[in-house]
Structures
1.
Amino acid sequence: MATLKDVAEKAGVTVTTVSRVINNRGYIGEQTRQKVQEAMKELHYQPNELARSLSMKRTNTIGIIVPHIVHPYFAKLISELESEAAAHKYKILLCNTKAETKKELEYIDMCKSNRVSGIVLCSRNVDIKKMKNLDIPVITIERYLDAGTVGIECDNYQGGRMATEHLIEAGCRNLIHLSGIKNENMPADARAEGFRDVCKEHGIQHREMLSNNKIYSTMDYHEYIRQAIREVPDVDGIFASSDLIAAQTIQVCNELNLKIPDQIKIVGFDDVDIAKYTTPMITTIHQPVHEMASWAIEFIEKSLRKEVIPEQLKLPVSLVKRQTT
Amino acid sequence: MATLKDVAEKAGVTVTTVSRVINNRGYIGEQTRQKVQEAMKELHYQPNELARSLSMKRTNTIGIIVPHIVHPYFAKLISELESEAAAHKYKILLCNTKAETKKELEYIDMCKSNRVSGIVLCSRNVDIKKMKNLDIPVITIERYLDAGTVGIECDNYQGGRMATEHLIEAGCRNLIHLSGIKNENMPADARAEGFRDVCKEHGIQHREMLSNNKIYSTMDYHEYIRQAIREVPDVDGIFASSDLIAAQTIQVCNELNLKIPDQIKIVGFDDVDIAKYTTPMITTIHQPVHEMASWAIEFIEKSLRKEVIPEQLKLPVSLVKRQTT
DNA sequence: TATTATGTGTCAATCGTTTGACATATAATT
DNA sequence: AATTATATGTCAAACGATTGACACATAATA
């Protein structure tokens, strides 16, 4: 593959000159510029980013670490992060931990080795930065933050409240909350708190369920949902902590011949595409994923410029009424 | 950040020695090795992959270029590719073209600049390799192949046949095929051929529909589906060319009060997760995405080793019976 | 004893860029 | 005429690894 040197020779100048026209810095004569550009065209020259990054001591790469790619929430998050990153001339190094701590630590090292400009961590919340002696900005999304990382999350508590209030207003008097993950201590836990508080305020009968699922190891919640409904047979409203669970709740209700929304109402969380493709479509709490991604990239850039950035950012959620309520 | 040199100084040896223990090549005394390893620990040394790649003239990066990340088929493909790549010590550079030719070409350049080991292209089929003077192995998935690239696809024609035969065996006599993309000339077009041939062989009344959707610009097919059913009101079987379309077909049938599978049966294509989360669950044609991803990575490796690889690989599909038939 | 194989380690060039420090030439300003 | 900007280029040292070519012991073999 052609190098700067080849181009320089072909154009009859030195590498510095070529580098100058590429990065257009310093003074360059119009004629010289022409010659150089022609040479580049002819040789199909493509600058070597590795050499460039090495020399400049910075890459334009952002590492994204997620526990799961197929999960619609993460797929959406990745998609939004990619768009935003591309708009800022960053490229994406994609890491999938499958929720294994070992892989996560390996990926952190990998990002470090590749000198990424920043890391967006949506995986877990070990005290990464301290542990790994990282001097790379780390943004977490919907995870508890460590010392020195900035955490972005949506207002899970309000989301829980809104979902629950909506169910109660719609006439539900016996509620279940289906949470996704047990024992993981995540911001999403606040959804349950919101649920609990609203139920208590209204004196509504309620029950919270915890899935046995290891974090995202499987996305099959059917048995968990069946069990929940079996335990509370006269339930008339379910607040699921993700649209994925909500979708499966629809299926289980269908098995049990519970009519949605007449006999039972369902509210999901996330507002990912799947909520629009089920029958009926899912009423859900919208997470501002686009904004979350956008802030994440912005914070990485600010952090690189040594600007002060907040430790935590909590974004508002909203209710999207569809057909399950 | 600590460099080889720092480690060498701390351990009282030269950089060559340190490099030797890292890559363990040549002879190294046990004591020396110890000392070096301690020094690395203490300094939290993490080799600079950029320098390493530059020096070795190879990266361990694979570029994945897709038109859409949120689309469940691509999400799954990306996920499988990532797993397989990780297992082979490759990292992933993720590129989302949103089906824009301009972005696609930019991303090809980006991959080239970053000296990726290979490119998995699932986006379109311009004559990339020739156009861009690429000397990087390119594997396409479910796209027509260019000169010099290897194409991996599933047996779309057989898939079309199987879906259609299944509908006919289940008693359908008036079929529609809903294809996803118009005028794109993709391997997936063969699904329609399979459909057509089987219908003709059985003398079954049939109709093929083409979506007006620009390729993946939106994933909303509702109006298209409504229109199709309006044109063939007595349809009793639909073969949708993706599970995403099938899911939306379920929704439309529900609007129109057509009972599935009693009055109308539906078969999808892809067998992505969404097929399991709709109500009813979608009977579909399974694409062996895992195997496709696995072959893609293998071919890239073979290609780097200068081994001969096939020009085309067609993998078998299978029918997964669920609840829409 | 001379020769060869086996360990252990050092030197310095190389990968493809960027960039500060210098030249040199021309034009404009005192 | 001397001084100072303004253009236009060149040189060579980084950046942080890898690696072939050597050097020098020590042990084994002829």
2.
Amino acid sequence: MNLDNDTLIPLAETFKLLGDPTRLAILVACLEEEKTVGQIVLQVGASQSLVSHHLRLLRAARLVKPRRDGRQMYYLAHDQHISCTLKDMIDHIQEEEAL
Amino acid sequence: MNLDNDTLIPLAETFKLLGDPTRLAILVACLEEEKTVGQIVLQVGASQSLVSHHLRLLRAARLVKPRRDGRQMYYLAHDQHISCTLKDMIDHIQEEEAL
DNA sequence: TCTATACATGAACATATATTCATATATTAA
DNA sequence: TTAATATATGAATATATGTTCATGTATAGA
């Protein structure tokens, strides 16, 4: 695998977004089903403000897709590569833990 | 997918390591074949000191495996989940770019 | 032993980042 | 319109992080 900077830099930026535990938890929360901000706040246990800030970054990177319904905003993880990426990395971690 | 903190936190830490472009380039450099620190320095275009600092972090997370041969240290990316993770994420980025 | 080469490490620093607090905006109900 | 609810945003801040510079350690050769 040989990556030029036009691939490497956005790749690193995307990984960086997954590199914060709160933000990663938010992404995982809306991985399989659409969740409102309020639901995410409850599930993740972070403040509403913090969740919104993180959602903004995830939205900007198109890692989640927003949908408005009345006063509520629903968020869903954007495509299936994300869950594949997570699964691969979880496999890696579990292999390391087994040692 | 439902992750407890014992999985989520190491997962985020690992992603964080891939989240710096220099460090990611270092990992990619030794993804398919063992490379000496000097070779990585040349390929990545960062200082020797910086490369060693990053390699230390990658080693601590067992993302690379070191081997000494005389004065040289060879590094190799540790297992195949890493390249799968990279490929998945590259696919994600390329889909986004296509929009 | 002395020198040179390859790599590692500690301190220092500038910048980036996560979080909080206060406040703003949008939508619904009264 | 007014009040209430759901979410977003800007400023401020404490901490984390990437990078450099100087120096240390390990190995090989003379």
3.
Amino acid sequence: MTGVTEDPVSAETRRGRPRSAASHQAVLTATARLLTCGEYEYDDVTVERIAAEAGVGKQTIYRWWTNKAGVVLEAVLTGHLRLDFSPVPETGDLRADLLAWVSETLDETFTEGHRSMARSLISALVTGGAETDSLLAASQIWEESPVADRLRAERDVGRLRADLEPSAAAAALASPLVLRLITSGRPQDSWAHSLVDIVLDGAWAR
Amino acid sequence: MTGVTEDPVSAETRRGRPRSAASHQAVLTATARLLTCGEYEYDDVTVERIAAEAGVGKQTIYRWWTNKAGVVLEAVLTGHLRLDFSPVPETGDLRADLLAWVSETLDETFTEGHRSMARSLISALVTGGAETDSLLAASQIWEESPVADRLRAERDVGRLRADLEPSAAAAALASPLVLRLITSGRPQDSWAHSLVDIVLDGAWAR
Amino acid sequence: MTGVTEDPVSAETRRGRPRSAASHQAVLTATARLLTCGEYEYDDVTVERIAAEAGVGKQTIYRWWTNKAGVVLEAVLTGHLRLDFSPVPETGDLRADLLAWVSETLDETFTEGHRSMARSLISALVTGGAETDSLLAASQIWEESPVADRLRAERDVGRLRADLEPSAAAAALASPLVLRLITSGRPQDSWAHSLVDIVLDGAWAR
Amino acid sequence: MTGVTEDPVSAETRRGRPRSAASHQAVLTATARLLTCGEYEYDDVTVERIAAEAGVGKQTIYRWWTNKAGVVLEAVLTGHLRLDFSPVPETGDLRADLLAWVSETLDETFTEGHRSMARSLISALVTGGAETDSLLAASQIWEESPVADRLRAERDVGRLRADLEPSAAAAALASPLVLRLITSGRPQDSWAHSLVDIVLDGAWAR
DNA sequence: GCGTAATCGAGACGGTACGTCCCGTCTTTCA
DNA sequence: TGAAAGACGGGACGTACCGTCTCGATTACGC
């Protein structure tokens, strides 16, 4: 969407003060819009296109970010572009909840829109260089995920091992899904359920 | 393994000069050589450079593959370019072996060379479009990993649950490492060890 | 007429399958067809296109000619591709006849089809190298033109100077038209008529 | 002189950074330099080489001209690249002067360097398409030639017919030479002298 | 009448230039 | 005076042809 948007907010702010904050926002929302519209992959979303979509000069983008990866990454980390992990259901039965979450996640995210966004995020990280790494490092992505939160809660009420590292467990569960998401196709449900079994029960024979 | 553009119909009676398998191979080995020499990242390895290194015309590359990503990906999947996972030690103590493997993997692969290659692989996947997906889908990358092999062996002698899915367990262990590898910096050893505990013992309190 | 690369020695005892005269003809007619259809300029008529149009292998063309210029030139010189100079009218009044011829030539040839063909011929000469030069040198293009014929006839009956070189006079009349044909647009009739006056009357004041 | 793609409308209020006249000039001088240095023919002078020689991006060339032919043609028509016709001697004897000029022109220009440049010019014309035609149409190439100038002067002092069209006479003299220049080899001096006789004396018997 | 040899159409080969697109920087004009 | 517009130098892309080469199939001649 381009021409129609004469945003009243940006119209007023344009007067006395520089539009800087408005432009900054416009870039992030434009980036999110382009990436979610389903028409463009990461590589197709050029800086020029973002600038045009945001109604912003290219230089304005380079004033705030070092490159496209930074823009995309900030769009993700600030929530303009959500890699929407579903919330974990709360039936009281942890295994059933996790199984439900995995299934839902697979169903929800194995749509082209979500895959494209995940790829974009990874691309941004991969091509972004050192400063994007630090951006992500500060984001505590696993620690704040719905899965980690749930596992932490279960541990705190004693249902899970006291020495459990919730972020590690969440990573063990979610990382394989993410890798599958950006690479191969949707895995079998049985494969995903095995994952839950492993994380909960471990591999040892009893 | 033939190129991604290979057509089963053409197996009948192809007219004209047949495609040169030698050129095909030369491209893959040249790609591997460039990516391994430590001098170039994925983006620095241009199609023209590959062609020059392989002593091949650029058009020949585009005759076999749709783009650079396809070339790199096939180089990986055919083993010309190895993402060298360390072998798992065999002391008899599975936990100790996996811990050792994780530590070694972290040490070995968190060198710029390995990270670069991982980034290249991911870039190829992410920019490659649909046909690279199918290439990877057929690759059984986790099923063939040293970790999956070891877990399968342990299961077969009864030390691990009979219903264990080795590839899922291997994914639970390795995927988080891969994601860290291509994104943030080297994780703490303690974080990695938590991962081993989860995969072996599970999360449940005893 | 055989191709420029034809070797008289080889005509005697050639082994193997003889060259196909049919293919040779097909190439020339295909070249003429492509160049006259109005769709292609000289540069657009590639060897590949000629081969396809003629239903002939590319190598067959290179077996007979050294390059495209040779093909086009032979097509012209053998009459497959005619640079149709109109005949000169024969009313008995030389000046009127030449004026009429000039006007008709301008009208007829300043159509895109003819211009394109003239350009093609010139291109062939310009890009063709030494052997195409000799081809043309042997063709006596001005000596055989309708204008030269007419001037020669008039000279032989004593109406023109006995020492007149008909080919030079024809060149003086036709060359400016050809150059205009391949470069600028149609000249004024008055400009063309001045040309006739100069060739007939000369420039001296009387 | 502005480029062929220049648009009169754009003269009003152009936004953004204005086009660099310096780059425009640099391209033309670089083109002339390459074509004059004797090392390259028209086909050897690639757009990339021009850009490099001019210290200019390739895109900048395509921003001003539609193709290489346009560049070369403008270089010629703006005098950056001179098709150096010799000046006509001034002994007072017009016939002797023109004969001398013809001989000198033949000697001077039938060197590979001049032929190469003439071929380049013709190639540019022939491959340039419609917009190069208009460029040339406006160029008055014959009207400004040394020969036309001399003829005009002689007419103005009454030695040549008052109704003589100098450009037509110059064309009658020079065009045959140009055509010979780009096609066959150097003509006989006698042939060239016949040309002068025709232009001065005309063809009629006296 | 059977091999030998050169041709045929077809199309891939190593090259090279093309014209387009994008990067990240710069230089204007406008509000 | 800050930002939009857009040209700049640079460089990779994917396409189109060039002229050569290699296929299987075909077609003549000489043995």
4.
Amino acid sequence: MARITITDVARMAGVSKATVSRVMNGNYGYIKDETREKVLDAIQKLEYRPSSVARSLASNRTQTTGILVSDVGNPFYANVIHGVEDVAFEHGYDLFLCNTNYDEERGLAIVQSLIDKRVDGVFIMSSSMSNDWIRELNKNSIPSVILDWQVTMEAPCVAEIQIDYEVGIKQAVEHLIELGHQRFAHISGPLSLETARDRKDAFVYHLAENGIDKDQIVIVEGDLKIEGGRKALPEILASPIKPTAIFTANDMTAMGVIGASRRANIRIPEDISLVGLDDTWLAAQMDPPLTTVALPNYYIGKLAMETLLKILERSKDNSEQIKEVVSTELVIRETTERQE
Amino acid sequence: MARITITDVARMAGVSKATVSRVMNGNYGYIKDETREKVLDAIQKLEYRPSSVARSLASNRTQTTGILVSDVGNPFYANVIHGVEDVAFEHGYDLFLCNTNYDEERGLAIVQSLIDKRVDGVFIMSSSMSNDWIRELNKNSIPSVILDWQVTMEAPCVAEIQIDYEVGIKQAVEHLIELGHQRFAHISGPLSLETARDRKDAFVYHLAENGIDKDQIVIVEGDLKIEGGRKALPEILASPIKPTAIFTANDMTAMGVIGASRRANIRIPEDISLVGLDDTWLAAQMDPPLTTVALPNYYIGKLAMETLLKILERSKDNSEQIKEVVSTELVIRETTERQE
DNA sequence: ATAGTTTCTGAAACCGGTTTCCTTTTCTGC
DNA sequence: GCAGAAAAGGAAACCGGTTTCAGAAACTAT
């Protein structure tokens, strides 16, 4: 059974392809009600569905976007993806999901492939990425929305979604200070990442604001994964500073710390208080439930897709840069406790 | 800057479009080395990249697949997706990721959209699905690979990946019996799902094999999510049977049980032993680490993509049904303990 | 009745590739 | 040196839509 094409519909309705196309899209001129009926009828009878491929080629729009994340397995991304997808679905967009696996090379290959597929836009949410990606996208004038990354280059069609870590981290610090903590540790993300440095700096800065000197802070570099947290804990415990509170760069790292603490016979929060960052659904499921600096995960995804739609809808010459900022907020659960 | 097309390359190399196409694809006839060089040169100089869209339209192949999962947030799917993606990436395929959100309607809409996009194949890994999906795909002769679902209809282009729960569940039961347990509970998935009934039946069957009668088993229906496990525990505790061991339909449910047990002051495994099913990375991170019936998550994804490739490569008339079976295996961690 | 609009529709070009078909060129072997 | 086969590559049709352009039909105003 050959596939039904627009030509079949046109023949059955006794009109031209152009008319069928017009009926379907509503654009370009007027259609007599009677004709419209005939066409709609034929479409229905034949169960015709237009080929997105042909449509894309002709119209230069694919109704498709790509999203690059480090790893779908990270619940943070899962939430973001949901947000993107829900809005995309509503507007008839499909989503290529791509895991970079924290690998810049692979990411670039993916970007190239997305360009070849002529996606209408790309979301870059991979924590490790490279300016090359943006450069390639830009060269092909494919708009992109980038999460939490300072774009340092000339890039007209790039929207940024910035995360204001300051607010939430300030709250976290004040919370810990209030509980009487005086010596701290931070398990950061890979310090090659600006976002990791941002979080670390914000933490250190607000500690300073509260009279805590740098020499009361241990910083250990992690990897944003469980493993990093697990490995970091012994290092922190061995430090002469003897921190009583740990702030991790994300929830996964905190999860690693919780696991390691059990093995090391350290009680959380009695011996050490712990604050994560992300607030994925996992945070509430940990034992004890994790106090964490919450990012609006789902909302970030939603906002990203909405931003892309905005870019796609605006006129060609309006290329003002869009920059959105989302805030963060401390969610207190049970991994933080008063330190006597 | 207009996009570079095959025509530009042809002009620059002083050959016809056909030749350029042949050089790129290697098929159809012979090319003189000298000509090939000229073309390759032009391609390089112009940084030409062929449009996948045009290519798809002409060749009727999109190098694209779609995958339907219930929810990316579930670590089980995350692993499967990784498996699919890695193989897909290797072979130059891209992946539309679609969350059905456990909603059959939405799933059908997604399937339709994938058909319109003329994907080369579809993976159905959503726990709740409908025969309509397969019917639509079939009508458009789009091959599909279905995970853990008994296809009850005429469906030539459908491959199945079955999961042999028997083996692992048998091990789980024997493990529990060996530990001295005599009274059991099972938190199932929605019993409208065949896969949920399978797991339940296998559990009950093997208990019977070990001399445990039905009246020593409590069955509570869950939802394969954390919430279901949380809600089920009180019900189990209230039962006159007083089970000492719980087997859950998946790890997420087990996670819910662990959470609820803490609130109910029940110790796991001292008071109640717990066995999950899936063995996502989460299992090992729970507290205590979860004993669980392991599915080869990543391998399932890999196998699925490999199976699809096999279908796509075989000749048109060879339509024998492919059925793969993967096995399961008990992984013992720390949620099961001897019952005195 | 006629000119001037406005409404409606079809023919054909086009999007950027692939593939068929056929012609030309280059090799073989004798 | 020539016939026949093999190698090489071009012209054009095609994939299934969209969009331009122009002409026909229907409607207004005079």
